[in-house]
UniProtKB/TrEMBL annotation:
Family: Belongs to the group II decarboxylase family.
Key word Lyase present: yes
Pfam families (alphabetical): Pyridoxal_deC
Keyword Transferase: yes
Annotated organism of origin: Aeromicrobium wangtongii
Residue ranges of the region described as Disordered: 441-462
PANTHER family named in the record: CYSTEINE SULFINIC ACID DECARBOXYLASE, GLUTAMATE DECARBOXYLASE-RELATED
Biased composition (Basic and acidic residues): 450-462
Protein known as: Aminotransferase class V-fold PLP-dependent enzyme
Required co-factors: pyridoxal 5'-phosphate
Amino acid sequence: MHDFALQERQVLGELAAWIADRRDAPVLIPPGSAGALPAVGRSGIGIRATWALLRDVLLPSSFPADHPRYLAFVGGSPTPAAVIADAALSAAAVYGGSELEAGDVVVAERMAVRWLCDVIGYPEDAHGVFVSGGSLANLSALVAARHDRVGSGGGLPDVIVISAAAHSSIRSAAAIMGCRVVSAGSPDHPTGAADLATVLDSLDPRDVVAVVANAGATNTGAIDDLAGIAATCEARGIWMHVDAAYGGAALLSPTRRPQFDGIQRADSVTIDPHKWLFTPFDCAAVLYLDPAVARSAHRQRAAYLDAVDNDDDNPADYAAHLTRRARGIPVWASLVANGTDAYVDAVETCLAVAGYAAKQVEAAPHLELVTEPRLSVVLFRRIGWDAARYAAWSAGLRSRRTALVTPTTYAGKPALRLCFVNPLTSTDDVDFILNTLEPDTSPALEDVPDTDHRATGDSRSW
Ligand SMILES: *Cc1c(COP(=O)(O)O)cnc(C)c1O
């Protein structure tokens, strides 16, 4: 273990204060200062100067995903408890792959996995692991699905049937696995059992690795007919994977829960705590109805692993990885620190602010809602704008560091998309963004007042 000299201890203290006060930090600085960075050279510049570069040049040039007006893509908003646990985890040099090394860290991660299984409605013996992201979770689940199919005899299946709005990571997983994808339904609408049956009828069931359904499509928030798809998969003996990377958090909302019915019948589920469950990057969960299949697909064997007890519950065994960060620890720490009611509350807040945004859009004569909001995604158009206009508006907000909102495409036409996953995003933030689209202010974006995120957001207790 390295000794921390006095200067390093001082920087650690500054780091702690910086973490706590980040929210009150001055305005972000535009990227482009990287030229000021010293070259990597034979002699170092010391920790104090390096920390100053990190704090004052590098980090403020990135648009933080927990900024209340980061509404592009899917942001995140880690709780203080999760951030603290994450920092401690790095410092403690925990190898999270095996019980032998990680000790009770594995026990706490298992509790976080169990909570997610409960949220889904999975039985007691379901299990899974935390990985780097939804992409690796989806890949790991599909590899387990294929392993299961191969185990039942026949050749190597090579077709993955996807809901048309499946996330890009599913195609990427298919490419890695040497599989082709066949898509069911339309990208702009939830996929139903009939859409799926039409596609499956045209395929030899022995060729099908799995069916991938969406529980919260990234672009639209749409949830497929999970119960109908589950019944179809069960009748045909096909593995069902549900990608709930973004949307799974809405299972916590009692009013939204029924839309997910059927998810508990899936053979595997992806859900990303680093999206809408208040955990730092990077952290996603892959969960299996029958974890033995995943273990058999993913467990690595080698002479140097002989000492790792095969009967242990080793997180390395449930995904395409070996050495791993114990990413479930920030999830567990935040859950025990805040309690699950706070999670329900935070998710409901995001849904309510999304509902507010949709109402404001409907009320504005120059704006048009393109679909009723599904989950916390609001899709709308600025009447009269083309793709170039949207791009210029988005770039203007980004370069002024006031908001991150990016255009998308819906039903073949450009649209704006707001995705709410941060309970600190307030209705004022929504008003701020919608105001910049008003006919009077939009051409002269330069006139938009330069506000940082100090002024916005309520003061939640996390
Ligand atoms: C974000 C997302 C993914 C990919 O997750 P990463 O954590 O970015 O790898 C997969 N599926 C859906 C539905 C997503 O929203």
